[in-house]
Amino acid sequence: MLKEERQHSILNEVELHNRVLLTDLAEKLNVSIDTVRRDVKELDDENLLIKVHGGAVSLGFANHSPQRNNNVYALDKKMAIAKKAVTLLRNNSVILIDGGTTCLELAKLLPPNLKLTCFTLSLPVAMELLRKPNVETIFIGGTLSKDSQIAMGPSTINALSEIKVDYSFIGTGYVDTEFGLTEFDWDVVQTKKAVINASKKTVLLCISEKLNSQHRFKTCHLNVINTMVTELEPWDTKLDAFKNLNIQIL
């Protein structure tokens, strides 16, 4: 594989999953970690991604990046998902919005006249919610990730154990009919488990490119999810395998 092809593949992986490990990239591309590390450094130098310890993060996911608004991967699809998700909301609902680029689009699209109490563990989502005149925003604190600006850790999990919201809207790195929702980060998994446990109903916001993918740490089975929202129409054949599960598809 030529260097240009390899770096294109690296960018695709980073943009799709927001954050990836060098070890996973090396395994996927069948090259050494040193080769991947050099590629990632070059892509960082070209301002196409952000190099972090042991991996890389997309510009759109790193909310502190000044290029963020111009570098959200599949933004049109994520906006379409957010528009569908908004239809689930009713006045005076108590909800929780997870972190990530799709969840941030949901926060942006909340109608200004909609009255909500909204918990979030994402600093960018919280800042967006403050723009909504009829949303009471409650930030769940903890150890903030420098990459995503999302709170996690024991304090976050403890705070989540004391609430029960009507809906939680979550993202995922990977989703599969057999393996469910998975991530590469154990701490992220523990936080997402706590979010699901704090919810009467859980709504997964997921672009279709993540369907039928998996990683090493499991968040939950798909039957734990009440609704899955993608940018696809519910009758799209790409969703056929998910229709056999006890899950609403929007």
TrEMBL record:
SMART domains: DeoRC, HTH_DEOR. Pfam families: DeoRC, HTH_DeoR. Gene3D superfamilies: 3.40.50.1360, Winged helix-like DNA-binding domain superfamily/Winged helix DNA-binding domain. InterPro entries: Carb_Metab_HTH_regulators, DeoR-like_C, DeoR_HTH, NagB/RpiA_transferase-like, Tscrpt_reg_HTH_DeoR_CS, WH-like_DNA-bd_sf, WH_DNA-bd_sf. The keyword Transcription applies. Keywords: DNA-binding, Transcription, Transcription regulation. It comes from Flagellimonas profundi. Residues 3-58 form the HTH deoR-type domain. The keyword Nucleotide-binding does not apply. This is DeoR/GlpR transcriptional regulator. PROSITE patterns: HTH_DEOR_1, HTH_DEOR_2.
